[in-house]
Amino acid sequence: MPSSVIVSPLTSSTVGAAQGINQAAQCVGAILIAPLVKKWATRSVLAGAIFVFAFMTTLLLIVDAATGMKRITNEI
User: Model's pTM, two decimal places?
Assistant: First the structure.
């Protein structure tokens, strides 16, 4: 039987957080794109959006690594 990739719950939650950031960025971007394109060149706006999304995703990965891939819970 071929080996398969095992995805841990922490990896799944990290992917879920990245997807959440992606959806939030799409919502905000859809609202802000028209005024930004009127003011600056389209390629500059797109480059800025890519940079912001990459920064937020990188920040998520850095925080995960710094905390030892542990999630903060509100359990008492």
Answer: 0.57
